[in-house]
Design goal:
The protein is an all-alpha fold and 180 residues long. It has one domain. It is globular.
Length: 180
């Protein structure tokens, strides 16, 4: 019984990842067609999208590379959540956003928001992925950002025409990791 459940969980994850290129293509087509400030959310409400934009920027703020919202990471999550996440993950994510709203996240200053997110991460650490708002948020944020043009070319080192395969490259202190 456990083997079948493990198989089904793995298969569902594989199917979600198989749909990822289609999700990415849909997202990119939507980005080109409609300016960011006029795009209608597909999965979340406008208030949730505002909250989500704040959250992704808390995880990946602007440093020597642009913040997550500059790459449209919050919009990527809006598209990918309905196409790639399980019903349980969608429910967990919606409940997590609602819990943040209920605790007054939207009216807090940046330091209080960071503390709130850190508390949430600490509380979620031992939860399975499907039940962890923070794990899902972090996963989709990193995936959306580092698969974007900004993430791949400005946050990571990018080589347009790679040479031969070099499996083990040493990085100098402060050097960015390589995009693939």
């Amino acid at each position: 019984m456990t083997d079948r459940r493990s198989f089904l969980r793995g298969t569902s994850a594989l199917m979600a990842h198989a749909s990822f290129p289609q999700v990415l293509a849909t997202f990119l087509a939507g980005c080109a067609a409609v300016p960011a400030n006029r795009r209608e959310p597909t999965f979340f409400s406008r208030a949730d999208m505002t909250r989500l934009a704040i959250l992704v920027d808390l995880i990946l703020p602007a440093t020597d590379s642009p913040a997550a919202t500059a790459a449209g990471t919050h919009e990527f999550i809006d598209v990918a959540m309905s196409a790639c996440a399980t019903i349980r993950q969608q429910s967990t994510f919606r409940a997590g956003l609602a819990a943040l709203a209920a605790e007054g996240f939207d009216t807090k200053d940046v330091h209080e928001r960071i503390a709130s997110l850190q508390r949430r991460a600490a509380a979620d650490i031992r939860l399975p992925y499907d039940e962890s708002f923070f794990k899902i948020l972090k996963d989709y944020t990193l995936t959306g950002y580092f698969h974007s043009e900004i993430g791949a070319t400005q946050a990571l080192a990018y080589e347009r025409v790679p040479g031969g395969y070099q499996g083990d490259l040493a990085l100098a202190p402060g050097q960015k990791a390589w995009a693939i």
